[in-house]
Predict the structure.
Amino acid sequence: MREYVIALKAGISFTIEFWRKKLALFAVNTGLKCGHGCLYCSTGCLMRMHPAFTRVGENPFAVGYAMVDPGTPDRVARDACQKRRRGMVQVCTIVDAWAPEAQKYKLGRQCLDAILSQPGWTVRVLTKNAAVLNDFDVISQYSSRILLGLSITATTDKSAITSIIEPNASSVSERLNVLKEAHKCGFRSYAMLCPLLPAVADSSDQIEELVGTAIEYGAEEIFVEPVNPRGAGLRLTQAALENNGYLHEAAAVEGIRKKEGWSQYVTHLVSNVQRSVRRLSDISRLRFLLYPSRLTEADKARIREDHAGVIWLGKD
C-alpha cells in the first residue's frame, strides 16, 4: 500500500448531500483515498478533479494507495470551536478514519475528541475497521452524542469474497463483533448495509439475516444502499472475482454494469429489504438511499408503488 501524506483545507464541512440522505449535516474527512482498498468504491468519481491526485501522480480510480492528512484533527478542533451552527457530523463521508493509514495517526480518535469536547455537536461514525473498538473509551465518555455504525457488506459465509473485494478492511465477522460489543456497552448504533452486491449479499435470505442482526444489536436506523455503478469499481470487482474463481458472482456484477441490469437489481433489493424490515422491525427505521437516474421508467414506477423507507436522491 503506497501512502501519501497530503494537506487538505477543510475541517468540519457542511454537506447538503448527506443531509438529504438523513445521515448528517456536516462531514469530516481525514484524507482523499482510503487504504481499505475496496474495489467497488466510487469515491474516485467524486474526487477525481482534486489536484492532489496529479501532484502525487496517481489515478483517482485506481487502488493500492492511500492519501491521508494527519493535520485534520487540528482543523476539526478549530471549526468545532468557531462554528455557530452545530449538529450531526459524519466521520467520515469519503474515506475511513479507522483505515490502516488513519490508525497510524489516531485520526478517528482525535477527531472524536476534537468535535465532542465542544457542546452542540453529535457524531455519526461509519467505518469498516474493527480498530474503532480501541476508542470505546472515548465513545463511552460521549455515548449519548455518538451513533456508531460499521459498514456491513455481506453475511459471514461470504467472508472469502469480501476479503478479495475489501482487502484491507476488517472481516465482516470482526465488524459484527464490534457492533455486538457496542450493544453490550449500551452505545447507540445504526446499521449501514452497503453496498449489497448482486449474488454476494442481495438474496432474500441474506438480507433477512443482515436486518435481523442489525435489530438484535439495537440499530436505531437501517441504512441500505445499492452499489454505485459509476467509475471503474464494478469492472475492478468483476475482474477480481473472476481471477479468484467466483465466476457466478462475477457474472452477476457484470450484469449490473448495464442500466437494465442495475435497475432490475435495485428493484428486487428494495422489495427484499422492505419485506425483511417490516417482518422483523418497523419500516420507519428503514433508510434506503436511492439515486434513480439509472432506473428504467418501468422499475421507477414499480418502486414508487411502494416506496416506504426509500429516500429519493439526485435531481429526480
Q: What stands out?
A: Residues 128-316 form a domain with the pyruvate-formate lyase- activating enzyme fold (CATH 3.80.30). The chain has 14 helices and twelve strands. The chain has a mean pLDDT of 97.
